[in-house]
């Protein structure tokens, strides 16, 4: 296995940064889209590409921290709820990480993308906004935070969108769409921070100064595009719903399966 981006160009880094920035917080499985983009660019899934993907996945976290900086700086209670919501995923991920990594397979990933899309459509058709639905982050209870955290555990399975599961969990737990989205975005801070840190500890030896250009471009582009994507996502869903994302997941899953896309690690 090679340790450097033999075939990765600055253009490749730009494209992967755009893909990551757009898909990290949309309920469409950013992992699956990164794998697809890498294959379309002809990149080999070596140790460098794995580390590269983890590094650019950190960038959108900073975008969300920038957007919600005032609430994050002012609310200790919110941080406590976010950490509590992360605990179920942290425990399951730590205990079963080898089994989870072994679950990467094209057929199951495609099937789970389709099932996630169906789940979104089902919840949206059944969802009736209630007067007592929680409409702000300060109103999220510890029980609701833990409910979102339990739903996030399902996203450990390859092909299942983290943001998709946590948003669904929030809506089913009594949060408004906007609040479910906001809590899902913020929950990525401890979740992706821990996952990225763990992976980088394993893969740091595959990085060197010669990779700085590709890493810098991928990170900066992912950060900027992530910021725009989150702002746009909030504006669109607050006016409409998640039905378009459900349709997209089903359609893209069917296309991946039809064309035999190998979504494997």
Topology, pairings included?
Elements: H1 10-23, H2 30-40, H3 47-67, H4 69-74, H5 76-101, H6 106-126, H7 142-153, H8 162-172, H9 177-203, H10 212-239, H11 243-258
Helix pairs in contact: 1-2, 1-3, 1-10, 3-9, 3-10, 5-7, 5-9, 6-8, 6-11, 7-8, 8-9, 9-10
What can you tell me about this protein's structure?
There is one protein chain. By secondary structure, the protein is mainly alpha-helical. Helix content is 73%, strand content 0%. The protein has 11 helices and no strands. Helix 1 runs parallel beside helix 10, helix 8 runs antiparallel to helix 9 and helix 9 runs antiparallel to helix 10. It is globular and about 55 Å long. The two termini are 13 Å apart.
Number of DSSP E strands = 0
Content-based structural category: mainly alpha
* Biggest pleated sheet: none
Quaternary class:
single chain
Q: So what's the overall shape? A: globular
The overall average pLDDT, rounded, is 82
Low-confidence stretches: 1-6
User: How large a portion of the residues is in β-strands, by DSSP E?
Assistant: under 5%
CA-atom Rg in angstroms: 18 Å
Beginning-to-end CA distance, first to last residue: 13 Å
- The H-and-E topology, N to C, reads as HHHHHHHHHHH
Count of discrete alpha- or pi-helical segments spanning 4 or more residues: 11
Task: Tell me the helix content.
Answer: over 70%
Descriptive labels:
single chain, 265 residues, mainly alpha, 11 helices, 73% helix, globular, disordered N terminus
Characterize this entry briefly.
The protein is an all-alpha fold and 265 residues long.
